[in-house]
Automatic annotation (TrEMBL), chain A:
The chain crosses the membrane at residues 12-30, 37-60, 72-93, 105-125, 131-151, 163-185, 211-236, 248-271, 283-301, 377-395, 415-439, 451-470. NCBIfam families: PRK06458.1-3 (NF005043), PRK06458.1-5 (NF005045). The keyword Manganese does not apply. Its EC number is 1.6.99.5. Its main location: membrane. This is NADH dehydrogenase (Quinone). Pfam families: Proton_antipo_M. PANTHER family: HYDROGENASE-4 COMPONENT F. It is an enzyme of class 1 (oxidoreductase). GO terms for biological process: ATP synthesis coupled electron transport. It is a multi-pass membrane protein. One of its GO terms (molecular function) is oxidoreductase activity. Keywords: Cell membrane, Membrane, Oxidoreductase, Transmembrane, Transmembrane helix. It comes from Xanthobacter autotrophicus (strain ATCC BAA-1158 / Py2).
UniProtKB/TrEMBL annotation, chain B:
GO terms for cellular component: plasma membrane. Gene3D superfamilies: 1.10.287.3510. It comes from the Bacteria. This is Putative hydrogenase-4 component E. It is a multi-pass membrane protein. Its main location: membrane. PANTHER family: HYDROGENASE-4 COMPONENT E. Keywords: Cell membrane, Membrane, Transmembrane, Transmembrane helix. It is found in: Cell membrane. The chain crosses the membrane at residues 14-31, 38-58, 64-88, 100-124, 136-153, 160-177, 183-204.
Length: 486, 226
């Protein structure tokens, strides 16, 4: 009662946008590294707490912002992983500064950009306007392009350039799709801003012209799908993940891919609200399966540890797209759960990998051996995290994959075969690589880690707990959202 | 009769002419084999875009579209081409437009893409009014031709030009959609501007690192790393 009264007086939705925006300006001005790292962490913590307040706040659908059951899942996950990543980033970037890979000026830029990225992602999630959502995703892309190029090495510039080009093409196709959606809506809801407001579109979707809406969805799926990293438009992803600073890899894999996926889901909802449109499912399932199988094969040939896990992200985004494409209460539930588990596990992996690369001074898989002997905490953390992402029980990833496979067998048995094949392929590859990294005689190069293992431990603990026990309110909520997604 | 000089038919014809002109200029861009010439043709396309948008502003009685037209004229037809000109001169790469595919097949592919976009758009929009649907078909053609250019060119500057011409197509589509809110047009122009800054920074960094803006140099550097 008191909580709901307090929530009425205070609307958290704009606050999760203003905190990072203000923090970005401050961080651009503060010269001291220690102060800005602390500021970065506290801004992220505040944003996360505000996002939690959204849970008890009333659902709103104003002219600018929308908060409904669907995007709260994304916002809370987004701000939480952003917060833990900022904690990891503080220790990681401190090390980079000491070794001279980055200068203090770069760091100022890095911290400010980190907050701009968060503000943009939050805006993309809570905006009620298709156009604003598009702009926010574009801004998020541009900030990450700049951050991927932060080290200014040949490889980093190449990765940033490729990311920029492919990301821009994707985002351009998405804009074309957005314009088409407006054209579809305009004869029904009239000219002007109403034609771009989610809550208005969803109410009137039944009267839209289905043919043009279909074409629009194809553009939107291709456009935002590029940002999700779905095959065949995934080419930017491994480069961007492997060459940027590791906290950015964690944020890219754990968050930005989700935000793009959220955009696809919103448009899928719009299509689902109209009985006469084509089913978006088969398209999403095809792209999802293609990503899964491609990544499964590619995982075997990786020689760079960050690229390895970048391909693993492609695999899992493929799985999630497949799950939402399959649809139905179980598969949608599995998709939501898998997205949450993947974000937590993958960012934990990147936290571990970041420190591994720092102590070993290399990203080459062949030069990293026997971590469990030389760095027990880090090594075993990585073992647990990789086992979790590979889908071994009792981690939460196992549960979501199990649900997905059962649901596939029930509804589309002939698709279960490639799905399971892809899962096994990826599992084999990850186990193969993991045994090399973690066990055996340690390779030379064992600087002390001045790492905080806390973010990794917290993430892994959450993933393990989720595998054993999901709190009933969370289950009820995911069920409700799964029902919405149709 | 004179007071009815601006008939719906004339509105249609003029918009049609400008939109078709944009597609034609896209083909001209595909055909260029010198960077300076390419930049000039890009500037010409931006002028055509500004005219098309201004005509839409007049025909739809939507004054905010004049702003979009102005942005297209100032930034895309003047500022960006001039800046790229200077950059190309400074880098000394004005002769380099290395294409992956030669001009002939590229033009054929371009024609196929235009046909494709006409088929897709005209089939999908039987209900919309004729002006909007043809505008959309032309816009999609410009978008796809820009994409084709990005794929078939190796030089980073010409890839950037391809991307910006792609964005011209998007603006054409956005203005063709009657009453589309201003936020989108400004944001598109804004994104071009940001993109340009990013590109500027990157071109110099690429130059700094590779002594060339040929994207092929990336591949050489990458070597065996898949």
């Amino acid at each position: 009662m008191i909580a709901s009264l307090a929530a009425l007086a205070f609307n958290p939705a704009p606050v999760i946008l203003t905190i990072p925006a203000v923090a970005a300006v401050l961080l651009a001005l503060v010269p001291s590294y220690r102060v800005s790292a602390a500021l970065n962490v506290s801004a992220c913590a505040l944003t996360f707490l505000t996002a939690l307040a959204l849970l008890v706040a009333p659902r709103i659908a104003g002219p600018f912002l929308i908060v409904d059951d669907l995007n709260i899942v994304f916002v809370v996950l987004n701000t939480f992983v952003a917060f833990t990543t900022s904690v990891f980033s503080a220790s990681y970037i401190g090390h980079e500064l000491e070794t001279g890979r980055l200068t203090p000026l770069h760091l100022r830029f890095y911290h400010a950009m980190y907050q701009v990225l968060l503000a943009a992602m939050n805006l993309a999630l809570v905006s009620n306007n298709l156009g604003v959502m598009w702009v926010a995703i574009e801004v998020a892309t541009l900030t990450t392009v700049l951050m991927v190029g932060l080290y200014r090495t040949e490889a980093a510039i190449e990765a940033a350039w490729k990311y920029f080009m492919l990301g821009s093409v994707g985002i351009a196709l998405a804009l074309f799709g957005t314009i088409l959606v407006y054209m579809v809506a305009q004869p029904v809801v009239g000219e002007g801003p109403d034609g771009m407001i989610w809550s208005v579109l969803m109410k009137r979707a039944r009267d839209f012209d289905p043919a043009l809406l279909n074409v629009a969805f194809v553009f939107l799926l291709l456009g935002y799908g590029t940002k999700v990293g779905l095959a065949p438009l995934h080419a930017w992803l491994p480069d961007a993940h492997s060459e940027g600073p590791t906290p950015i890899s964690a944020v890219l894999s754990g968050l930005l891919l989700n935000v793009a996926l959220y955009a696809v889901l919103r448009f899928k909802l719009l299509l689902a609200a109209h009985p006469g449109t084509l089913a978006p499912g088969p398209l999403m399932m095809a792209m999802g399966l293609a990503s899964l199988l491609l990544a499964g094969f590619m995982l075997y040939r990786r020689r760079d540890i960050k690229r390895l896990f970048a391909y693993s992200s492609i695999e899992h985004m493929g799985l999630i797209a497949f799950a939402f494409g399959l649809g139905g209460p179980v598969a949608n539930f599995a998709g939501l759960l898998h997205m949450t588990m993947h974000s937590l596990t993958k960012s934990a992996i990147f936290f571990a990998v970041g420190h591994v690369c720092q102590v070993k001074g290399t990203q080459k898989l062949s030069d990293i051996r026997g971590l469990t002997t030389s760095h027990p905490a880090l090594g075993w953390g990585l073992v647990v995290a990789v086992a979790a992402i590979a889908g071994l029980p009792p981690a939460g990833v196992f549960m979501s994959e199990f649900l997905l496979v059962t649901s596939t067998f029930a509804h589309r048995p002939w698709l279960a075969l490639p799905l399971v094949a892809g899962l096994l392929l990826a599992f084999g590859a990850l186990m193969l690589k993991l045994s090399g990294i973690a066990f055996g005689a340690p390779s030379p190069g064992s600087d002390k880690v001045k790492a905080s293992h806390l973010p990794m431990t917290v993430h892994l603990a959450l993933v393990l707990v989720a595998g054993l026990y999901l709190p009933p309110p969370l289950v009820a909520w995911f069920r409700h959202v799964a029902g919405l997604l149709g | 009769m004179i007071e009815h000089a601006i008939t719906p038919n004339l509105v249609f014809d003029v918009s049609h002419m400008f939109a078709g002109g944009l597609v034609l200029i896209s083909f001209l861009m595909l055909y260029q084999d010198r960077l300076y010439a390419l930049l000039n043709v890009f500037a010409l396309q931006a002028v055509a875009l500004a005219l098309a948008v201004a005509w839409q502003a007049y025909a739809q009685d939507a004054p905010h579209l004049y702003v979009t037209a102005g942005i297209a004229l100032v930034f895309k037809a003047l500022v960006i081409p001039v800046a790229l000109h200077r950059m190309v001169a400074r880098l000394g790469i004005h002769r380099q437009v290395e294409t992956v595919v030669s001009i002939g097949p590229t033009m054929l592919a371009g024609i196929a893409l235009v046909a494709l976009s006409l088929v897709v758009m005209l089939k999908a929009t039987p209900a919309a009014d004729a002006l909007a649907r043809e505008d959309l078909a032309f816009a999609l053609s410009v978008v796809l031709l820009g994409l084709l250019m990005m794929v078939t060119r190796r030089n980073a500057v010409s890839q950037v030009v391809g991307f910006m011409s792609l964005e011209n197509g998007l603006i054409l589509a956005a203005t063709g959609a009657k009453g589309m809110p201003l936020v989108v047009e400004i944001s598109v122009a804004f994104s071009v501007l940001i993109a340009f800054i990013v590109i500027g920074i990157f071109l110099f960094r690429i130059r700094e690192r590779f002594d060339t803006v040929d994207v092929d140099a990336f591949d050489r550097f990458r070597g065996g790393r898949a």
